[in-house]
Amino acid sequence: MLEQDLSRALELAPEELCTELGSYDCVDDIHLVALGGHDPFGRGQYAPVAKPMVTTPLAVERVVLAACSERVARDHDERAVFTALELDGPAPAATSDAFIETVDALYQRLLSRDPIDAEYEVLAELLVDDQGEPVLAERFAAEACVAVATTTEFIFI
Amino acid sequence: MRFSSPPIRSAQGLAASACLFGLVLAFPSLAEARPNAPQAFCQQYPSSPDCLGRVITCDTCHDSTDPVLWNGYGLAVNAELAGRDFDTYLSEALAAVESEDADGDGESNLDEILVGTNPGRAESLWQPLPEPTGLENPWYALGEYDPVLAYRRMSALYCGQSPDYAALESLRALDSDEQRERVHEDLALCLDSAYWRGRGLRELADPRVRPLESVGMDTEVELYGVQLALADYYWDYRLWRYVLSDDRDLRELLTAQYHVIEGGDGALERVEGVQPNPLLGGGQPLEPEHRAGMITTQWFLVINTMLSPVPRTTAAHALRSYLDMDISRHEGIFPVEGEPTDIDGKGVQAPACAQCHSTLDPLAYVFANYHGIEYPSDNGKYDEERLVGVIDGWEPGQVTSVLFGEPVSSVPEWAAVASESVYFRRAMTNMFVEHALGREATPAEMSELAALVDSLPADGYSANRLIHRIVDTDAFGAP
Fold first, then answer.
1. Residue B372 belongs to some domain of the structure
2. pLDDT digits (tens, 9 = 90+) for B308-360
3. Which of B149, B160, B164 sits opposite A1 (nearest CB)?
4. Closest CB from A1, A109, A116 relative to B161
């Protein structure tokens, strides 16, 4: 389901979300078990593991990071998700329409709801680096995407 | 912790019966009391969910049954019995220790029994969830049934993906009654979707079918150019998906005498009679009168019976898959007097073995008339003479199969008894509930679980209707 929800939210085909070594599907192959799947036919694993594994958070972040990065890369040429951002430029101000529209898009696409004020404030922290300097818009886009797509709400509900 | 609500699951039957089993296993002189004790407990606690189908094990009183090791609760009950007649004084002994705390975990034996934790093991403890605290959640109604959350979870489980923003906004605009109505309208669509009918239902079957690509119809193993496929597990999956869709009676998982094929449009169609093997295996060789749903498919018999004269693994897997009783964990022990007879000389009469084989062997005898692997093309065929010449002195009818204390003369009879039992209803309900929740039901959810089990007959044993009821539970819809 993680695959399906990311695929729809980021407008990427499932096989475009994440691959290891550019060839092996992260979700259906390499990290299948860690992500809660099972493979009865080939591996003789007849049921998913009962609880998340030690590697599950790593696998989730791996897939989400790859998917968000792929979406940002594609939005440079063909905008689908980050339509309000100039990805080659600096990140927008926290009070700008571009920021609000971007956060709205991520919450609506990934969590199927609008963000609350506290959530805008949290994501606004991603607009600047550790020194308080504005980051590139593409970096903000990727990090905001990862932040929302690794919330408990997205992963478990 | 006190539980003021009525007992939502009574482990009293479990505790008592388990101890009873342990006692009789430990002391052969008590063995004859064993079959009567569970009934005695259920007479004392007729509303106990355990008496309505919970699987009984020895763990409540025992750390081990061979060698015999008692936990604190078992010791307390045993001490209270003080060598008196087991049948007569067991209820009294159990009642006498109800207020004690045998494992010292702060909960009385009775409280633990009523919520289903083990009164003899301190690490077996349950605490109800705390009341939600913190900031108000503007999107989900914490601590109460929320149709929006239920809709989201329902879509993910049965449609294969979460609802999008527009769908949830549309739902949020409705009042509560309309929201619930929408949940069920769209659930019906999901249960009819390609995702649920295909992948969703198939995944539920995996641990029961236990496919093995290397010997199934997808195998690449060949001998002299002939593909070595022992059987085709896709028959099993098709039957499973067929029975569990379109409001069919899920008892047919055990009683179907038909098979199911997939048409060109992907629709499942029922077919009757023997289906010839395309290769060495891969068909369905049984005449309808010898068929019993999922537990007599060629694949089921091949992968479980294999070359065994007495197909104990086959019976054990049927029990585990469709009655939720894993006999290797001492679940579903219903000893049969005089068993095991050890007809194949495997040494199962040894005390440590007989604990389970006194139940398992009588479960397995009727499966002995079915071949497992039998080259060149008799895999899974019915043969009443199968054991003649294989087991010295074997004669058909020499032994009697017994399921839940009831003699059965064939696998279809075995399946009929199983499918009408509360254990089957419980197993099927648990399967769908655990799939829906991603975990077992907690003690606080046991009353809802019991109601679901009870609803199956009135709902015509429909899996779809059961799922609709599951989605209506607080366990499912309360964040």
1. yes
2. 999 999 999 999 999 999 998 888 888 899 999 999 999 999 988 988 899 99
3. B160
4. A1
Asked if the model's pLDDT at residue A121 lies above 50, the reply is yes
**Contact flag A5-B161 (C-beta cutoff 8 Å):** yes
Higher local confidence (pLDDT), B52 or B85: B85
The total number of structural domains that make up chain B:
3
Kindly identify which residue of chain B lies nearest to residue A1, measuring between CA atoms: B161
Phi and psi dihedrals of B328, rounded to 5?
A: -70, -15
* DSSP state, residue B269: E
CB contact under 8 A, B156 and A41: no
pLDDT digits (tens, 9 = 90+) for B87-115: 788 888 888 998 999 999 998 888 888 77
For residue B212, the chain A residues in CB contact (below 8 A) are 41, 44
For residue B62, the cross-strand partners are B70
User: Shortest Cα distance from B167 to chain A (angstroms)?
Assistant: 8
Joined tokens for residue B42: 């259920």
Q: Could you write out the DSSP letters of every residue in B110-145? A: HHHHHHT--TT-TT----PPPPP-SS--SSS-TTS-
- Does B356 lie in the same domain as B207? yes
CB contact under 8 A, A113 and B203: no
Q: Residue B414: inside a domain, yes or no? A: yes
What local confidence, expressed as pLDDT, does residue B46 receive? 59
Q: Tell me, what's the pLDDT at A49?
A: 92
Q: CA triplet B165, B169, B170: central angle to 5 degrees?
A: 120
Q: Among B396, B419, B442, which residue terminates a domain? A: B419
Q: What percent of chain B has pLDDT over 90?
A: 58
B138 vs A5, A40, A116: nearest CB: A116
CB contact (8 A) between residue B139 and residue A113: yes
Q: Please indicate, yes or no, whether residues B239 and B336 belong to a single structural domain of this protein.
A: yes
Q: Are residues B272 and B367 in the same domain?
A: yes
DSSP B440: P
**Are B228 and B367 found together in one domain?**
yes
Q: How far is A133 from chain B (nearest CA, A)?
A: 32
Task: Give the residue-averaged pLDDT of B240-244.
Answer: 98
Do B171 and B230 fall into the same domain? no
Measured distance CA(B139)–CA(B168) in Å, rounded: 11
In this predicted model, what pLDDT tens digit does every residue of B363-378 receive, in sequence order? 999 999 999 999 888 9
Range of the domain at B58: 12-115
